[in-house]
UniProtKB/TrEMBL annotation:
This is Hydroxymethylglutaryl-CoA synthase. SUPFAM superfamilies: Thiolase-like. Keywords: Acyltransferase, Transferase. (3S)-3-hydroxy-3-methylglutaryl-CoA binds at residues 146, 245, 279. One of its GO terms (biological process) is acetyl-CoA metabolic process. Residues 176-250, 261-352 form the Hydroxymethylglutaryl-coenzyme A synthase C-terminal domain. The active site is at 82 (proton donor/acceptor), 114 (acyl-thioester intermediate), 236 (proton donor/acceptor). Belongs to the thiolase-like superfamily. HMG-CoA synthase family. Its EC number is 2.3.3.10. InterPro entries: HMG_CoA_synt_C_dom, HMG_CoA_synth_N, HMG_CoA_synthase_prok, Thiolase-like. It comes from the Bacteria. Residues 3-168 form the Hydroxymethylglutaryl-coenzyme A synthase N-terminal domain. GO terms for molecular function: hydroxymethylglutaryl-CoA synthase activity.
Length: 399
């Protein structure tokens, strides 16, 4: 039985900052970000957007295409995030309601920095193995935030990916072997009392590549495919240059040729959306996968993709998947391009106004003005409750 990704969709925030508009505040040339980090723009989540609204917007097109039996087959929703909005209640429960899913469903949130989406994928595959009639909706959703003025600031972003995991998938069959690597390292974390991450940037780059080496060695020890058996690669992308560095590192480890044109053919298409969106933590590698499938000019049917998923702290996993023949008939390329291209540009002052306000903590009534054009909105924080609405119901909910 083949198992894997049957449908894929992403959403990003409705506004973006061009990194050329950020560069002067750091006293650097735009080329440092465009070339040095491989990032051109970053999505900026408005006050009425968060991991719930992004997750629902990512999954909505998938759910809309299912009939009632297809929706009922979704008996599990796994939401991976490191930008959680509650210490107790899963963000996935709000998403489950916004999507109109059946009550006969388990919903849970998973956390391990940028890695937890991959753990959700593996758990989903295990559930479908037990009952191939059921489907699992995996959603990775994050808003990447660092302090204003910090070196992490140009590596922010926001995005969510929804993946429908099933038997006989239409897009990518996930192969059973994985290489794993866990080690306790303080490269990036976010204590409960902070809204922005704390990061040791240099250490995080080293920890990432060491994790890649460890996970790759484990994949080989498990009898996984060799480097030359893999056609294209998708890496976790905190900024796209990191994926380039990671791939260069892997070619060095395995002693493969490092001709820039060959390297670009192996990873270039997976970087295109992320250059425009920025970091989306758990979602970033899967936006990379969508980018690869949406942009490849040749038919990738039968190609083996190597995935390296990394979450600081740290957990790394290297696994592989085979692209299913006919996958192109099931891509949502036009919708993805629209979501990236139709964002509104904000200038630096506007960006600072957007990221400044802290969430109210007094339990009062706090309506949130309509800013984004997302199909789902955070309409208010009222009596310590977050009030989520479909945008067409928003006026009614806050009236
Ligand atoms: N033109 C072109 N490239 C330039 C440049 C210019 N004018 N100025 C600098 N650069 C290059 C640097 O040479 C460097 O490239 P290299 O790493 O290939 O040598 C790159 O831009 C970044 O410059 P650097 O000075 O190292 O950046 P920084 O100290 O401001 O921080 C990060 C970079 C990634 C460490 C920082 O953004 C960060 O902490 N991000 C969050 C953590 C993260 O994403 N970690 C990843 C693992 S999960």
């Amino acid at each position: 039985m083949q198992l894997g990704i049957d449908d894929l969709s992403f959403a990003t925030a409705d506004q973006y900052l061009d990194l050329a508009d950020l560069a002067p505040s750091h006293g650097v040339e735009p080329a440092k970000y465009y070339v040095g980090l491989g990032q051109e723009r970053m999505s900026v989540a408005a006050p009425d957007e968060d991991v719930v609204t992004l997750a629902a917007a990512a999954a909505q097109p998938i759910i809309a295409d299912l009939d009632d039996a297809g929706r009922a087959a979704i008996r599990t929703v796994l939401l991976a995030t490191e930008s959680g909005i509650d210490q107790s209640k899963s963000a996935g429960v709000y998403v489950h309601r916004l999507l109109g899913l059946h009550a006969a469903c388990r919903v849970v949130e998973l956390k391990q920095a940028c890695y937890s989406g991959t753990s959700a994928l593996q758990m989903a595959l295990a559930l479908v193995t037990r009952n191939p009639e059921q489907k699992v909706l995996v959603i990775c959703s994050d808003v990447a935030r660092y302090d204003v003025g910090s070196s992490g600031e140009p590596t922010q972003g926001a995005g969510a990916v929804a993946m429908l995991i099933s038997a006989n998938p239409r897009l990518v069959q996930i192969e059973p072997l994985s290489g794993l690597h866990t080690t306790d390292v303080m490269d990036f974390w976010r204590p409960n009392y902070r809204t922005t991450a704390v990061v040791d940037g240099r250490l995080s780059l080293r920890a990432y590549t060491e994790s890649l080496s460890g996970a790759w060695a484990d994949l080989q020890a498990q009898g996984g495919p060799s480097f030359t058996d893999i056609d294209t690669f998708c890496y976790h992308q905190p900024f796209t240059k990191m994926a380039v560095k990671a791939h260069q590192h892997l070619t060095k480890v395995v002693g493969a040729p490092r001709d820039p044109e060959v390297l670009d053919a192996q990873i270039g298409d997976s970087l295109r959306y992320n250059k425009q969106i920025g970091n989306s933590y758990t979602a970033s590698m899967y936006i990379g996968l969508i980018s690869l499938l949406d942009h490849a000019t040749e038919d990738l049917a039968g190609n083996r993709i190597g995935f390296f998923s990394y979450g600081s702290g740290s957990v790394g996993e290297f696994f592989t998947g085979l692209v299913v023949p006919g996958y192109r008939d099931h891509l949502r390329t036009a919708e993805h391009r629209r979501r990236v291209d139709e964002r509104r540009r904000v200038d630096h002052d506007e960006y600072l106004r957007i990221v400044a306000p802290a969430n109210p903590v007094d339990g009062g009534e706090h309506p949130i003005p309509v800013t984004s054009r997302s199909p789902f909105r955070l309409a208010a924080i009222s009596g310590h409750q977050r009030v989520y609405v479909r945008s067409d119901e928003a006026a009614e909910a806050v009236a």
